[in-house]
Amino acid sequence: MISYLKRACWNSGRQRCNLNGFYNRFTQDIFAKSYDTINAQATIDIFKELDAFYHNKATIYVIIDNASYYKNAMVKEWLKTSRIDPIYLNLYLQI
């Protein structure tokens, strides 16, 4: 298992702990990174690192929720030239 975490986060209630990460269910790899805030730039940053980590893959499918930082215009523009193919979760997913 590969874990990529810049620094440990402790959530004491006084300081936010913002983690963005991915899990590969086939290899059990965990890819995570801590940010001061999760926004479009942080999303592009972790997508770039994910893209570099899986450099030998033709397409990288990422299943993500509908958070605004994933659907930001800057992120969508960056994804046009990336091998990352986002799959957005259905808002009304019924189990």
DSSP helical segment count: 2
Give the class-level CATH name.
Alpha Beta
Oligomer classification: single chain
Strand order of the largest sheet: 1-2
Question: What are the low-pLDDT stretches, counting only 5+ consecutive residues below 50?
Answer: 1-6
Q: How many strands, what sense, and barrel or not for the largest sheet?
A: 2 strands, antiparallel
What's the structural domain tally? Answer: 1
CATH topology: Nucleotidyltransferase, domain 5
Order of helices and strands: EEHEHE
What general outline do the C-alpha atoms trace?
A: globular
Superfamily at the CATH H level? Ribonuclease H-like superfamily/Ribonuclease H
Give the integer mean of the pLDDT values: 85
Which second-level CATH architecture applies? 2-Layer Sandwich
Instruction: Quote the distance from N terminus to C terminus.
Output: 29 Å
DSSP strand count: 4
Radius of gyration: 14 Å
Given helix and strand content, the structural type is: alpha+beta
Helix content: 10-25%
Strand content: 15-25%
Task: Please describe what this structure looks like.
- The strands form 2 sheets. Strands 1-2 form a two-stranded antiparallel sheet. A two-stranded parallel sheet has the order 3-4.
- It is built from 2 helices and 4 strands; from the N terminus they run ββαβαβ.
- It has one domain: Nucleotidyltransferase, domain 5.
- With 95 residues, it is an alpha+beta fold.
- Strand 3 (60-64), helix 2 and strand 4 (84-88) form a beta-alpha-beta unit.
- It is globular.
